[in-house]
């Protein structure tokens, strides 16, 4: 019997490659989201620090120039927080898209793996069927030979000659 070959192996290889690429993109998107969240955390803490600094400047003698700089710094920090929140939102959307793509590719790959497994099991069933068929034929030939051999012996013992 010929060796097992999966005629869709190239398709399976391509799907596995696409699955790996999708998983890699998912990992990159997750890393991007983590970086965006870290940047947001830093921006929020910087904005909080600016608020506390302004609160400290408004007690006692007020230096208007410093307070003006502090308000500009705080407004810049608030803009950074807004920008970072938008980055986090975009990173989450990208992560969700990558997650869906990875799930799709994983499912496609698993379908090919199951198909290959089913075909291999069918191949093995056919192989063992053919093997057992061959063994049955060998056993039948031996049985026929032994049966005809024993008939020839019995005939000779009874005095009959046979030409077999």
Please sum up the structure shown.
This protein has 164 residues and is mostly helical. The chain has helices spanning 9-57, 64-157. Helix 1 packs antiparallel against helix 2.
Rg, Å, rounded: 40 Å
Got a strand count? 0
The secondary structure category is mainly alpha
Low-pLDDT segments: none
Largest sheet descriptor? none
Give the DSSP E fraction (strand runs of 2 or more residues).
Answer: under 5%
Write the element-wise H/E pattern from the N-terminal end onward.
HH
Shape: rod-shaped
Share of helix, binned: over 70%
Mean pLDDT: 87
Number of helices: 2
Give the end-to-end Cα distance, rounded to a whole number of Å.
Answer: 35 Å
Please name the defining characteristics of this protein:
single chain, 164 residues, mainly alpha, 2 helices
Describe what this molecule looks like in 3D.
The chain is an all-alpha fold and 164 residues long. 87% of the residues lie in helices and 0% in strands. It has two helices and no strands. It has helices at residues 9-57, 64-157. The model has no long low-confidence stretch (mean pLDDT 87).
């Amino acid at each position: 019997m010929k060796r097992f070959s999966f005629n869709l192996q190239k398709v399976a290889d391509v799907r596995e490659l696409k699955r790996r690429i999708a998983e890699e993109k998912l990992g990159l998107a997750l890393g991007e989201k983590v970086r965006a969240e870290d940047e947001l955390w830093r921006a929020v803490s910087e904005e909080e620090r600016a608020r506390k600094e302004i609160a400290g400047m408004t007690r006692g003698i007020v230096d208007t120039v410093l307070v003006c700089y502090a308000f500009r710094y705080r407004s810049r920090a608030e803009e950074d927080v807004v920008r970072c929140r938008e980055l986090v939102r975009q990173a989450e959307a990208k992560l969700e898209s990558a997650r869906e793509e990875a799930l799709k590719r994983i499912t496609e790959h698993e379908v090919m793996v199951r198909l290959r497994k089913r075909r291999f099991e069918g191949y093995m069933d056919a192989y063992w069927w053919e093997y057992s068929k061959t063994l049955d034929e060998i056993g039948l030939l031996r049985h026929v030979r032994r049966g005809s051999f024993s008939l020839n012996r019995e005939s000779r013992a009874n005095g009959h000659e046979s030409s077999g």
